[in-house]
């Protein structure tokens, strides 16, 4: 895909598997400027990062009492979040559309951000809850003896300890949201609000014979995920293996 993005379209069909004879970044420049890819990229960055930040924050707050406290309704709430993890959000496509329309959030990046944030909370609660439960309860008791309140225990003790899990939750929310196509297709109307998947669909229709530009668009859409995985590999492993027995 990278090699074909650096060669002209005529060369793609004659030498598709060989390195490009004369590499050129003209396709990337054309995609970034003529195809409004810079706008799509910025919209995806705003929506995805906003949704990940909101979803991770809500997940951390919700998972903490469910994992550390035994209170009336704990099992019911845990089952509620688990049901949200098991049932795909697409089952409620029509009700969600009418809800967004009643709130004036159709064709809005804010509406898409809130929807994405809500969709990631069940997974975040599931992962962070397991991580919270792996921490000894003596940490909470010692902090309370020293006079720390609940919010201070959460912010000063718990959050630093669950940092690997937070990174894993954020990453695993980021990846599917970056590639999400259905809700941008349903909720977004104007070109300057399209995210990358929605913009690429329109881009493929306009540039369907310019294969070099199409490959360049796919490379640009995939590059942030590749960089993110390389940077956060250690955090992913630490977050997903926390609490596992040897």
From TrEMBL:
Residues 41-232 form the ABC transmembrane type-1 domain. Keywords: Cell membrane, Membrane, Transmembrane, Transmembrane helix, Transport. Gene3D superfamilies: MetI-like. Its main location: membrane. It comes from the Bacteria. It is found in: Cell membrane. GO terms for biological process: transmembrane transport. It is a multi-pass membrane protein. The chain crosses the membrane at residues 40-64, 76-98, 110-132, 153-175, 211-232. It holds the Pfam family BPD_transp_1. One of its GO terms (cellular component) is plasma membrane. Belongs to the binding-protein-dependent transport system permease family. This is Carbohydrate ABC transporter permease. It comes from Bailinhaonella thermotolerans.
């Amino acid at each position: 895909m990278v090699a074909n993005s650096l060669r002209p379209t005529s060369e793609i069909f004659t030498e598709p598997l060989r390195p490009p004879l004369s590499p050129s970044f003209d396709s990337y420049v054309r995609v970034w400027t003529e195809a409004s890819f810079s706008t799509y990229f910025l919209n995806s960055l705003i929506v995805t990062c906003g949704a990940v930040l909101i979803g991770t924050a809500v997940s951390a707050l919700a998972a903490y009492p469910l994992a550390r406290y035994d209170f009336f309704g704990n099992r019911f709430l845990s089952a509620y979040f688990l049901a949200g993890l098991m049932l795909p959000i697409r089952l409620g496509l029509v009700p969600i559309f009418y809800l967004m329309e009643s709130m004036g959030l159709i064709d809005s990046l804010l509406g898409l951000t809130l929807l994405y944030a809500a969709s990631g909370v069940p997974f975040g609660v599931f992962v962070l809850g397991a991580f919270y439960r792996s921490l000894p309860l003596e940490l909470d008791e010692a902090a309370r003896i020293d006079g720390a309140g609940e919010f201070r225990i959460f912010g000063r003790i718990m959050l630093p300890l669950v940092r690997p899990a937070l990174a894993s939750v954020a990453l695993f929310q980021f990846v599917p949201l970056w590639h999400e196509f259905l809700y941008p297709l349903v909720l977004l109307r104007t070109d300057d609000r399209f995210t990358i998947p929605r913009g690429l669909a329109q881009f493929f229709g306009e540039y369907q014979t310019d294969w070099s530009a199409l490959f360049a668009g796919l490379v640009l859409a995939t590059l942030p995920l590749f960089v993110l995985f390389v940077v956060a590999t250690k955090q992913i492993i630490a977050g997903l293996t926390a609490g596992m027995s040897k």
